[in-house]
C-alpha cells in the first residue's frame, strides 16, 4: 500500500487487515496486529464491507459515472450502501437539484450491484412476530 495514494473503501481496509492476519479465530492472540486494528476489523465485519467484493465495487464505480457523482460521494455510497432515497439524500450534495428522479434509479443500482450486508439480512428476518400474541385492537410497538 502506497502512503497518501488516495482514499480507501471500507472493503479495502478490511481486506488489508485480513491480509495481516486479522480474523475471528483463536490465532488472533498471536497475530501481528494492534488491538486498535482488531477493533476496526470487528466493526468492519458488521458493515456492508464484509460482503462486498472487488468486482462489485469496480462495477458500481463504472455504473455510477452516469450520475456525475464526486469521488467522495461514490466512496460514501460504497461504504454505507444506502437502501432508500432517504439514506442517499445526505450523501449526495444537492441531491434533488442534481439528480431529480434519477435518485430512485441510483437506489436500485446500489441494491442490485452492491451485496446486502449480513447484518441487514438478519434484521429483516427478525422483524416477524406472532400474530396470536396480539389481542384485537391492541397496538404493537416495534423494538
Automatic annotation (TrEMBL):
Gene3D superfamilies: 1.20.1250.40
GO biological process: one example: transcription initiation at RNA polymerase III promoter
Molecular function as annotated in GO: nucleotide binding
Coiled coil: none
Record bears the keyword Kinase: no
Stretches assigned to the RNA polymerase Rpb4/RPC9 core domain: 1-117
SMART domains, sorted: RPOL4c
Pfam families assigned: RNA_pol_Rpb4 (PF03874)
InterPro entries linked to this entry: HRDC-like_sf, RNA_pol_Rpb4/RPC9_core, Rpb4/RPC9, Rpb4/RPC9_sf, RPC9
Keyword Nucleus: yes
Family classification: Belongs to the eukaryotic RPC9 RNA polymerase subunit family.
Protein name according to UniProt: DNA-directed RNA polymerase III subunit RPC9
Source organism (scientific name): Escallonia herrerae
Amino acid at each position: 500500500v502506497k502512503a497518501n495514494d488516495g482514499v480507501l473503501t471500507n472493503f479495502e481496509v478490511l481486506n488489508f487487515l485480513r491480509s495481516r492476519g486479522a480474523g475471528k479465530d483463536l490465532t488472533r492472540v498471536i497475530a501481528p496486529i494492534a488491538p486498535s486494528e482488531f477493533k476496526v476489523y470487528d466493526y468492519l465485519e458488521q458493515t456492508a464491507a464484509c460482503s462486498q467484493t472487488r468486482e462489485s465495487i469496480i462495477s458500481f464505480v463504472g455504473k455510477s459515472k452516469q450520475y456525475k457523482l464526486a469521488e467522495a460521494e461514490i466512496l460514501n455510497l460504497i461504504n454505507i450502501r444506502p437502501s432508500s432515497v432517504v439514506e442517499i439524500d445526505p450523501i449526495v450534495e444537492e441531491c434533488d437539484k442534481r439528480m431529480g428522479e434519477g435518485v430512485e434509479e441510483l437506489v436500485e443500482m446500489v441494491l442490485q450491484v452492491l451485496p446486502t450486508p449480513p447484518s441487514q439480512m438478519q434484521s429483516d428476518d427478525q422483524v416477524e412476530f406472532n400474530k396470536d400474541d396480539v389481542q384485537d385492537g391492541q397496538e404493537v410497538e416495534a423494538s
